[in-house]
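stage 2 :: seqdesign
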């Protein structure tokens, strides 16, 4: 009988973030995420609860409230400038540009469109304002080692889904 997810079990997952409205895959993980269930708070409590009792091969969909993660979409963080004011190396859709305000605070802006005359960047997280589903596929469930329990995940790893999602 296969192991089921419960506290102090080592779990490996693949996940995708899917736009509920269009069905488009917005984010996909390129490597399995490993953590110790109930020890590492790598995922929100609602996701953790949904994973309780699941086993390898199970796939679950969990709606994510992007307003809680990223706040409301802020249109004041969208800027368009004349293309000649933008260095050539930034003229690519999806390019991340880090800018600082007058206080020295940094914020990442993503190039969302450009043409022969203008370039637009957006400082909102790309998931902001979207209804998304977090699709998790359970790959492995097994007893965690003492070292994995102490670390909260795979030895040598530092899983942080919020960090991954913030780069989405």
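stage 2 :: out
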């Amino acid at each position: 009988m296969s192991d089921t997810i419960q506290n102090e079990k080592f779990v490996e997952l693949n996940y995708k973030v899917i736009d509920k409205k269009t069905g488009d895959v917005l984010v996909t993980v390129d490597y399995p995420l490993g953590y110790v269930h109930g020890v590492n708070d790598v995922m929100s409590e609602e996701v953790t609860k949904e994973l309780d009792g699941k086993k390898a091969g199970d796939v679950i969909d969990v709606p994510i409230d992007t307003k809680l993660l990223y706040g409301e979409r802020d249109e004041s963080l969208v800027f368009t400038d004349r293309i000649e004011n933008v260095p050539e190396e930034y003229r690519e859709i999806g390019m991340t540009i880090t800018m600082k305000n007058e206080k020295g605070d940094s914020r990442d802006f993503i190039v969302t469109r450009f043409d022969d005359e203008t370039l637009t960047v957006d400082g909102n997280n790309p998931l902001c304002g979207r209804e998304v589903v977090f699709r998790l596929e359970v790959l492995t469930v097994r007893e965690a080692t003492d070292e994995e329990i102490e670390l909260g995940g795979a030895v040598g790893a530092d899983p942080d889904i919020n960090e991954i999602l913030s780069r989405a």
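stage 3 :: structure notes
- The chain is about 15% helix and 40% strand.
- The CA atoms of residues 17 and 26 lie 6 Å apart.
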